[in-house]
Amino acid sequence: MALINCPECNREVSDRDEDCPHCGCPLKGPADIVAGRRVRTVERTAKTYKAWMLVGCLATLAGLAGSLGGGLSGKADFVLIGVLVVALGLAVSLWARLAAWWHHG
Ligand SMILES: [Zn+2]
After folding, report:
1. What is the crossing angle of helices 76-104 and 47-73, to 10°?
2. Rounded to the nearest whole angstrom, what is the distance from the C-alpha of residue 17 to the centroid of ligand 1?
3. Which residues does the chain have with pLDDT short of 70?
């Protein structure tokens, strides 16, 4: 472990620190310079919710394709299952969107 000087407050910090413990200046990872200061953009929506939104969208598309295929081939069971999968996909998407909003704003 070595000590380096923080580019923001110039106090000594460990070169293993992600952020300066004194002023919070980001020391590692991607950072941009805005108005002469190092800033790091923090992802606001967790990947968990994004993954659930993706699952919901894929289920909606799969349900649409299933019900369309069932309708074209005259299979009523496929249409019903497709409509149910579409409803489930939309519900999962909506839940994930609301959960992301609830937890992250
Ligand atoms: Zn600092």
Report:
1. 160
2. 11
3. 41-44, 105
CA separation (Å) from 64 to 7, 60, 75, 93? 54, 6, 14, 15
Yes or no: say if 19 and 27 are a contact pair by the CB < 8 Å rule.
yes
Instruction: Please give all residues whose CB falls under 5 A of ion ligand 1, grouped by chain where several chains appear.
Output: 6, 8-9, 20, 22-23, 25
Whole-number Å distance, alpha carbon 26 to ligand 1 midpoint, is 8
Helix (H) or strand (E) holding 77: helix 76-104
Distance from residue 89's CA to the centre of ligand 1 (Å):
46
